[in-house]
Amino acid sequence: MNLTKNKYYFEALDHYPYSIPDCVEALNYALSYDPQDADSLCLMARVYSEILKDYNTAKAYFEEAMKNDVTSISIPHFYIKCLLYNEDYEEAEKLIAYSLTLKGINKADILFLRSILKERKGKIKKALKILSEVREHSFDEGMVYQLEDRKKFLKGKISRKKKKKA
Predict the structure, then answer these.
(1) What does the radius of gyration of the chain's CA atoms come to, in whole angstroms?
(2) InterPro entries of this UniProt entry (predicted)?
């Protein structure tokens, strides 16, 4: 039974995000074999969050996925993004703090999301400071380039604020 569930999960993953009807159909099959499969629940949550923009339904799926696998390192990144989109900043902060305790999680990604959270709360200088910490946990050039672009963007926001005040 587990092989069949995995077959449908991988089929759904293969279809995401290019063929959502096929993805959802495969996910429904996967969840019919194992309604508590954290990976399938996470992917269904991503469909609701990233494609349909139904953040409350997505949160319900993410919560169920986390409940079924609290040590998953693949769920928090997407769940935090959903919380940020839905402006659930307190929940996002708690999930970020928890996620950073998980062994094997990409700390650079989670800290990057913390920086975005601070920016959304209007704490741009704190967001910039966090980006320095992200760099310490980055192990690929892509992330380093992304950090440099993000720093420029945030510094531009600071200079625009100063110009408005003057």
Answers:
(1) 18
(2) TPR-like_helical_dom_sf (IPR011990)
